[in-house]
Amino acid sequence: MGGRCALPRSREPLTRPLRLLEFPVPFCQAAGVRYEHLQPSPLGAHRGLEMRRNNWRLRPGDRVVRRPRQRETAPVRIRTQDRRRRFALPSSSSALLTLAGGFAVLILAGTALLMLPFAAAGPESAGFVTALFTATSAVCVTGLVVVSSGDYWSVFGQVIIAALMLMGGLGIMSAGIVVLAVLGKRVTLNQRLLVRETLGGEALGSAVRLVRYIICFALGAQLVTFLLLFVRLVFKYPAIEAFWQSLFHSVSAFNNAGFTIFPDSHSLSAFRSDPAVLWTIGLSILLGAMSYPVMNELARRKGFTRWTLDTRLVVLGTLGLWATGAVTVLLFEVTNPLTLGGMSVGDKISNGAFQAFTSRTAGFSSIDFSHVEAGTSYLYMMMMFVGGASGSVAGGIKVNTAMVIIVATIAAVRGRPNVEFARREIAYSQVSRALGVLVLGVIGVSLFIIALMVSERSNLEAGTFEFGDTMFETMSAFGTVGLSHGITPDLSTPGKLIITLAMYVGRLGPLTIALGLALRQRRALYRYAEERVRIG
C-alpha cells in the first residue's frame, strides 16, 4: 500500500481531531497492528490527520493506522499428551509379542512340515509331539531329540531341520529386516530397537546394515566350516553323502544347535580320535557363541586395551568358562572308563578341550554324558545356565550378564560405591537388569524342574530316572544346549511337552526379560526417602 501510515500520539475522544505521527507503512505492517482508513485533514500545515467518522471508503492518498486486536495477541493454549509414556508401554509389549509370536509361528510351520508323510524315513509319518519337539529344538537351536535325526528323518525332513536351525540361529528379526529391505519397506523405530537389543547393535539408524553384516558373517563362517568338513569327510563317506553331512553339520555347528545325522554314531563319538573334525566344529561353535559385534571388534581393534568394556567382559568370561570346563572334564573323567578313561593322553586333552567349547552352548559331545561323574554334571549345568554372549545364537542368561554380576559382587565385597572394571563404570541400570535376568532365570528353571519331577514321578519312583537326570535335562533345555543324560526319548508325553516349553522359554526368556526392562526404562520424576535394611 502506498503512502504513509500514522500511529496515535495519545488517546483522545473521537469527536476531536486526532494528532498522529507518520510512519512508513512497512513499519506498521511489522508492528502487527490493524489498518483503519483516514482522510487528509484540512490542517495540512501541521502535517496532521483528522478522522472522518461518516466516511470509511478508501481514497487515494488515505493514511491508515493499525491497532492490535486482543484476540490476535492473546496466548493460545494447546493440550498435548504425554508421548513418552504412550511410547514406552506399547513399544515394549509389541516387541515381546513380535519375538514370541515370530518364533511360535516358525515352530508351528516346522511342525506341520515334519508331519508330512515324506518327512520321515519310515512308512509312518511323525506324530504331533515328535514333530513339535523336533521343530522347537531346531528353531531354539537346542539339539535335544526324542528320535535319531539320522535314522528317523528322511532327507527332506533333515533339510527342514537344517532350515529351521538356520532361521532360528539368525533370528526372526534378522529375517524380518531382510524381507522389509527386499520389499523396499521402511524399518520402524520399534524394529530398530529390537535389532539393537537382540543382535547387539549400538546405533538405531544402522539396523539394516547391521543385519546385512551379521548374515554375511554367519553365511561366510558356515561356508568355511562346510569346506573344512567336506575335505575331511570326503575320505570317509561317498562324495554326495559327505557333501550333505558337511553342509548339515556346518549349519548345526555355527548355530550351536547340536543336531547330528552321522550314521551309527552318538553325536560325535565316532570322531573322538579325529581332532580335525572336532576342532573344526569347536571353532565354528565358538564363532557363533561370541556374537558378531564382538568378533568384528576383535578383527578391527588390535589389543585388549582398545576393546570396549563389553568385548573385554565377553572374552574374559568365555576364556574363564572354557578353562574351567576343560579342567573339570580332565579332573573328573580322566579315569572314568566310560568317558575319557580308555583314550590316549592326546585324545583326552583334545576331547576335554572340545567338550569345554560345546558344553555351554551346543549339544555336540564326543563322550556319553549319561555316564559322566556327578561333579562334571553339576559344573556343566552351571555353565549351560550361563551360555554364550549377548546377541549370539547361544542361549542361557549370557556371559555378559554373568560377568556384570561378578564385577558388581566384587565391588560390593570391596565396599566400592560404584561398579567399575578396567577403568570404566557400569551403570546401575545395567546391573539391575543383569540381576533381574539372573533371578527370573533361576525361578524359571526351578519351576520347570518341579514340573518335570511331577510329570515323571512314576519313573523316579521306579528308579528309571534320578533327580540329577531331570535337573540336567531341564537345564540343558532352558540353556538351549542339547546335552543329555539320555532320558529325553523315555519321557512321558507331558514330560516332553514340558521340555518343549522349557526350550522355547529358554530361547526367548532371558532375551525378552532384558529387552522388556530396557524398553520400559524411564526416568523417575520423584524419589522416596531412603531407609536401611539389614543384609546377611
Give the count of helical stretches: 20
Task: Tell me, briefly, the overall form.
Answer: globular
Global Rg:
36 Å
What structural category do the secondary elements indicate? Answer: mainly alpha
Query: Spans with pLDDT under 50 lasting ≥5 residues?
Result: 1-54, 83-92
Order of helices and strands: EEHEEEHHHHHHHHHHHHHHHEEHHHH
The level of helicity is 55-70%
**Cα end-to-end separation:** 86 Å
Write the layout of secondary structure elements.
Blueprint: E1 4-8, E2 20-24, H1 25-31, E3 37-40, E4 49-50, E5 63-64, H2 70-73, H3 83-114, H4 128-139, H5 149-152, H6 155-170, H7 172-183, H8 189-199, H9 207-233, H10 239-254, H11 275-290, H12 292-300, H13 309-333, H14 345-358, H15 374-386, H16 399-413, E6 419-421, E7 424-426, H17 428-455, H18 457-462, H19 467-478, H20 493-519
Helix pairs in contact: 3-4, 3-6, 3-8, 3-20, 4-6, 4-20, 6-10, 7-9, 8-9, 8-20, 9-10, 9-11, 10-11, 11-14, 12-13, 13-14, 13-15, 13-16, 15-19, 16-17, 17-19, 17-20, 19-20
Structure description:
- The structure is a single chain.
- This protein has helices spanning 25-31, 70-73, 83-114, 128-139, 149-152, 155-170, 172-183, 189-199, 207-233, 239-254, 275-290, 292-300, 309-333, 345-358, 374-386, 399-413, 428-455, 457-462, 467-478, 493-519; strands at 4-8, 20-24, 37-40, 49-50, 63-64, 419-421, 424-426.
- By secondary structure, it is mainly α.
- It folds into two domains: 4-73, no CATH class; 111-519, no CATH class.
- Strands 4-3-5 form a three-stranded antiparallel β-sheet, with no helix packed on it. It has a two-stranded antiparallel ribbon with strand order 1-2. The protein has a two-stranded antiparallel sheet with strand order 6-7.
- Strand 3 (37-40) and strand 4 (49-50) form a beta hairpin.
- The longest helix is centred in the N-terminal third of the chain and has 32 residues, at 83-114.
- The protein is globular, with a radius of gyration of 36 Å.
